[in-house]
Amino acid sequence: MPDNLQKALIDSLLACLTFLEHSDSDAVDPDSAMRALEDVAPLQNLFDAVSRSLVATFQQVAAEETDTGWREFIRLHPRGLGLVSPNAE
């Protein structure tokens, strides 16, 4: 997958997941948000073949990010998606 497409997909996925995870209950029904987040979880099975590349892209996106809070969120997100072990550094 081309790097720019991979980066765009990761940016989009992060934006959606962040919106669902951090939206006020007046903006998004919490049960609906949880269902949507749970629907994304099985995608990690599809990532097995490309997980190293995706993790590298997450790291690249994080390195280029100027907002420290967002950079840390991006840096840790592969762990949340199950792309890396929760105990990995």
Fill in the keyword field for this structure:
single chain; 89 residues; mainly alpha
Summarize the structure.
The chain is mainly alpha-helical and 89 residues long.
Description:
The chain has 89 residues and is mainly alpha-helical. The protein has one domain. It has helices at residues 3-22, 30-40, 51-64, 68-80. The longest helix is centred in the first third of the chain and has 20 residues, at 3-22.
Topology (elements, then pairings):
Layout: H1 3-22, H2 30-40, H3 51-64, H4 68-80
Helix pairs in contact: 1-3, 3-4
Q: Write down the overall mean pLDDT.
A: 77
What does the radius of gyration come to?
A: 13 Å
Question: Describe the biggest sheet?
Answer: none
Number of domains: 1
What low-confidence regions span 5 or more consecutive residues with pLDDT below 50? Answer: none
Give the count of helical stretches. 4
Name the helicity range.
55-70%
Principal-axes shape call: globular
Return the string of H and E elements: HHHH
Percent of residues in β-strands: under 5%
The secondary structure category is mainly alpha
Q: What is the terminal-to-terminal distance?
A: 26 Å
Question: How many beta-strand runs?
Answer: 0
